[in-house]
């Protein structure tokens, strides 16, 4: 029963770790998209300044790029938080796997001890039968 509970715990921790990894991948994709978007707008600003740009349009470009920079900063923070959560999930999964391994080792040891006891009992019974047969064989003379 303990082994089944430990297996369930390890499986659940593994699923959580997988979910966190998937979420981190999505957050990283969003970060990459924001970086691409910012690069695109920076290039647009560069082209617009080469062809001539009003001060208000320049200000709007710069303000939008600053907004993208803030979004990138926030997304970097989210990715960092996801990394921390993944590491915690990984540690939880390792702990559950160690717990399961301990229970399995205990079960294996107990099984070996039961086999050894059964073998000893069988040997004692065999020795007793042999001793009785020997006594009968030597008593009859």
TrEMBL record:
Q: By what name is this protein known? A: Flagellar FliJ protein
Record's GO cellular component, any one? plasma membrane
Q: What is the lineage of its organism?
A: Bacteria, Pseudomonadati, Pseudomonadota, Betaproteobacteria, Burkholderiales
| Location of this chain's protein in the cell | Cell membrane
Q: Which GO terms describe its biological process?
A: bacterial-type flagellum organization; bacterial-type flagellum-dependent cell motility; chemotaxis; protein transport
Please provide, alphabetically and separated by semicolons, the GO molecular function terms listed in this UniProt record.
cytoskeletal motor activity
Family note:
Belongs to the FliJ family.
Primary location recorded for the protein, binned into one broad class: membrane
Pfam families from the xrefs?
A: FliJ
